[in-house]
C-alpha cells in the first residue's frame, strides 16, 4: 500500500470513528489535469458532527501517516468542510449540501469505491 493509499484509509477511519456515513473514495490517479490523486467524501448529520469528523480525520491522518493538511476550509459553518492533504482531499458534508453540490459525480471516468456504513 502506498503512502497516499494509507492516508486515504486514515481519512476513511477518521470519518467512521465519528459515525460519518456514505463514504466514497474517488480515485483520480489515472485522470489528467486533476488537482489531487484521491477524493474522500463523507457526511455527518449536523454541523456539529461535521466538525467532530473534521477533527477526527485530522487526528487519524497525523497519527497514521504523520500528514498535516495544507488547508482546511469550511469550518466557519461546518456545512461542507474540505481538508486538503495535497494528494488526498477529504470533503465532509451535511446531507443537503452534499446533494446540492454533487461533487461525487464530477469525474465520470474516475474509479469510485463506496465504503459500507458502519452501524
For the largest beta sheet, what order do the strands appear in spatially?
3-4-5-2-1-6
The secondary structure category is: alpha+beta
Q: Give the ordered list of helices and strands.
A: HEEHEEEHE
For the report, how would you describe the main beta sheet? 6 strands, mixed
> What is the global morphology?
globular
Key features of this structure:
single chain; 119 residues; alpha+beta; six-stranded mixed sheet
Describe the protein's architecture and organization.
The chain is of the alpha+beta class. The chain is built from 3 helices and 6 strands. A 6-stranded mixed β-sheet has the order 3-4-5-2-1-6. A hairpin with a 3-residue loop joins strand 4 and strand 5 (88-93). Helix 1 (3-17) runs antiparallel to helix 2 (47-65). The chain starts with a helix and ends with a strand. The mean pLDDT is 96.
Amino acid at each position: 500500500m502506498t503512502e497516499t493509499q494509507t492516508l486515504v484509509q486514515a481519512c476513511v477511519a477518521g470519518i467512521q470513528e465519528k459515525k460519518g456515513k456514505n463514504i466514497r473514495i474517488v480515485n483520480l490517479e489515472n485522470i489528467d489535469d486533476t488537482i489531487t490523486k484521491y477524493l474522500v467524501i463523507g457526511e455527518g448529520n449536523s454541523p456539529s458532527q461535521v466538525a467532530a469528523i473534521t477533527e477526527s480525520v485530522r487526528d487519524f491522518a497525523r497519527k497514521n501517516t504523520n500528514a498535516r493538511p495544507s488547508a482546511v476550509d469550511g469550518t466557519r459553518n461546518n456545512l461542507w468542510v474540505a481538508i486538503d492533504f495535497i494528494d488526498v482531499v477529504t470533503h465532509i458534508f451535511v446531507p443537503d449540501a452534499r446533494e446540492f453540490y454533487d461533487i461525487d459525480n464530477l469525474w465520470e471516468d474516475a474509479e469510485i469505491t463506496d465504503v459500507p456504513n458502519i452501524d
